[in-house]
Every structure is written in structure tokens, then in C-alpha cells.
């Protein structure tokens, strides 16, 4: 079967949506809660750390351009340990995806349609995610490009129209030292570390040379980092430390902005980009989960497991946190630790070290990726 | 419970439709995998209904000491 090809723009858009799909609206709140006025510096530190993860992803791609993460595990650690790591990755994907689903459904319901039953959102997102996964990687990559443009437009409109509202000085700088900044950077690293999911689509990156792929990954992470830093600075500059008490501070900023051009209320645009971004993020996570399970269980094709696995993930998501306060706590304090000590930093680091030490003895001919 | 049962039924029907054209060995494999996934879903549903306990609660209880140490 022919593998769908992903070009540089599509790869950049996948990384972009993958991170900014949910973080654009939420991240200022979680960072400001820990780092205070220095939240924007935490974003810069987070971006630098994320570039290290990006370099690790590229190092793996450079050595295994035809394999996905599950096959790389097996080649690096052998069959038994490789399968344990692979199984862990599937569990990690399901847990992370359920968090994304919960965020998507809770925030859409909480902000935009408070009187609608949450179950309706879960069912609608379930149907969309199943459909997009069935359609495949090519359609997902193309849609990502369109939605990336929408997210960039939303971001630019907020930044440009928010300038007149800036009234809170971002001072004093580093008043409590560097430690709160470093603690605050854990949340952006965990969000941007999700670039590790790109390892699942290495076999689709057939059309480009390695140097350009490295540039694409790193440049996209830098652009996302700049977005995070600017949106945090603007949220702090407009709302001040009040931002830490809000679930979606960027939405509150957008509600304050009034423009008299084509439309007056900017929150509609926020809603559009949120729903589109979160849907594509869910779909990409789900696609990778299905692909990982298929590879792990040596199945011929992934279509028959799409619906049952989606059902499991949505059940976990539906019964996860009980309210938005618990969700914010989980996102800000628990998820960064869970992800960074597992598949977003520690395990890729172990993989890169193992690869560096054993690079001459790694088997090149065990398994191959099949779409 | 009714919606949950309906979704399980939909999953079973869709699995049967998807695996119909496959070979006998593949059919068995997919039945085992999909059956296991549905059983796990049912267990998660039951645990939540009986004990009001979710996987996220489990994660919070495991990682909260670390979070308290780091973010205190």
C-alpha cells in the first residue's frame, strides 16, 4: 500500500496545531499561576527546553527515517523491553488524548454552550475523530494547514487589537528569583514536548531531505514559543495577575477587545479556532494511538480497531475530572510531571543515549512500517 | 447506562462489518483485540459508577506528592 506523503508545510502545521490547538487559550493561566508576572520568561525557558526535545526527535528521525516510534523501541531495546515501552506509549497516548478530549468538551460547554449536556459534545467529537481517522493521514495533514492559518489569524488579531488595552506593567522582573520561572516553565515544556508524537509519522515524511525536516521541526517550535510568549505577555499586560484565576484568560482578553471593522466581538473568532484546533489535535493524537496499537499487536490494518478504541478513550475522558477546577489542577500540576518523566523527555533522552552508545549494533532489518 | 449500552452495540456492529471481508485468522485477532478493548471500557465504566473513581483521580493521587514538592 502506498504511504501518504507529508510535505514541510503540512509537517509544520501538524506540530503547530498539535501544540497550539489547546495551549493558545489555556497556557497563560497555568503559567502565571506558578511564575506570576514572570510567566512570559517561563515561556522562553520552556521554548529552549522544547528545542532540546525537538533535537532528540530529529536525532531519532535521522537514524530511523522509515520507522515509527514502536519499531524504534523494538530496534533499540529488543523485543520484550521494546514492547513494554510500546505498550506504555499506547497507555500514555490514551491518557493524554483523554485529557485533550476533556479539555475540548469541558471548555466548549463551559464557555460557549453552558446549558447543553456535556454528553452531546463527547458524542459529536467522537464522531468527528472517528471519521477523520478513517479518512487517513493525508486528509488530516491538509486540514491542518487550513486550520493553522485560522489560528495564526486569530493570534495576530488578538495581538494587534489588544495593544491599546495594555495597561499593567510587567514589573518587578524576577522579584522572587529564578526558581518560580523554572517551575512555571514545566507546563509549556509539557505542551511543546508533545512534538514527540511526530515520531509516529516518520514513515510519512518521505518527500523531504533530512536537513529541511530538522529546520521545519525547530522553526515551528520557535514560532510556537514566540506565540506562547507574546500571548502570555499580552494576557498579563491586560489582565495582570487576575489571569491566574481564569480558566481561559485569552478568552477574557478577547471579550474586552472591541473592533468596529467587519465584526465587533472577537470571542466568536476564538470559538472558531478553539473548536477547529482541538478537533484536529484530538484526531492527530487518536491517529497516532491507533497506529501505535496496530503496530504493537502486528495487525494488518488499523480500520477495524478505530471505533472500539475511540469508545475506550472517550469513556476514560468522560469519567476523568469531575469539574473544571480539578481539570486545571491536573493540567497545570500533574500532567507536566507525568509527561516529562515519561514519553516527552525522559524516555526520548534514554533512547537517544542508547542510540548514541549502541549505534553500530542496532539491527537495521527487523520490522518495517506498513500503513 | 442506556447510552453506554447503545455505544457498545454500535462498536460490536461496526467491528463485525469491518472484519467481514478479512481472512479467518485475522478475524479472530480483531475479535480478541476489539473484545478486550470493550471489556476494559466496561470495567472503567463500572468502577466509576460503583466507586466514583477515575484514571485521572488515580494519576492525581500518584503524582500529587511530587507536584506538591515541585510546586510548593
From TrEMBL, chain A:
<keyword id="KW-1133">Transmembrane helix</keyword>
<feature type="transmembrane region" description="Helical">
    <location>
        <begin position="305"/>
        <end position="322"/>
    </location>
</feature>
<feature type="transmembrane region" description="Helical">
    <location>
        <begin position="186"/>
        <end position="205"/>
    </location>
</feature>
<comment type="similarity">
    <text>Belongs to the amino acid-polyamine-organocation (APC) superfamily. Spore germination protein (SGP) (TC 2.A.3.9) family.</text>
</comment>
<feature type="transmembrane region" description="Helical">
    <location>
        <begin position="40"/>
        <end position="61"/>
    </location>
</feature>
<feature type="transmembrane region" description="Helical">
    <location>
        <begin position="271"/>
        <end position="293"/>
    </location>
</feature>
<keyword id="KW-0309">Germination</keyword>
<feature type="transmembrane region" description="Helical">
    <location>
        <begin position="7"/>
        <end position="28"/>
    </location>
</feature>
<keyword id="KW-0813">Transport</keyword>
<protein>
    <submittedName>
        <fullName>Spore germination protein (Amino acid permease)</fullName>
    </submittedName>
</protein>
<dbReference type="Pfam" id="PF03845">
    <property type="entry name" value="Spore_permease"/>
</dbReference>
<feature type="transmembrane region" description="Helical">
    <location>
        <begin position="217"/>
        <end position="241"/>
    </location>
</feature>
<keyword id="KW-0472">Membrane</keyword>
<feature type="transmembrane region" description="Helical">
    <location>
        <begin position="334"/>
        <end position="357"/>
    </location>
</feature>
<feature type="transmembrane region" description="Helical">
    <location>
        <begin position="107"/>
        <end position="133"/>
    </location>
</feature>
<keyword id="KW-0812">Transmembrane</keyword>
<feature type="transmembrane region" description="Helical">
    <location>
        <begin position="145"/>
        <end position="166"/>
    </location>
</feature>
<dbReference type="GO" id="GO:0009847">
    <property type="term" value="P:spore germination"/>
</dbReference>
<dbReference type="GO" id="GO:0016020">
    <property type="term" value="C:membrane"/>
</dbReference>
<feature type="transmembrane region" description="Helical">
    <location>
        <begin position="81"/>
        <end position="101"/>
    </location>
</feature>
<dbReference type="InterPro" id="IPR004761">
    <property type="entry name" value="Spore_GerAB"/>
</dbReference>
UniProtKB/TrEMBL annotation, chain B:
<keyword id="KW-0472">Membrane</keyword>
<protein>
    <submittedName>
        <fullName>Uncharacterized protein</fullName>
    </submittedName>
</protein>
<feature type="transmembrane region" description="Helical">
    <location>
        <begin position="6"/>
        <end position="23"/>
    </location>
</feature>
<keyword id="KW-0812">Transmembrane</keyword>
<keyword id="KW-1133">Transmembrane helix</keyword>
<feature type="transmembrane region" description="Helical">
    <location>
        <begin position="30"/>
        <end position="48"/>
    </location>
</feature>
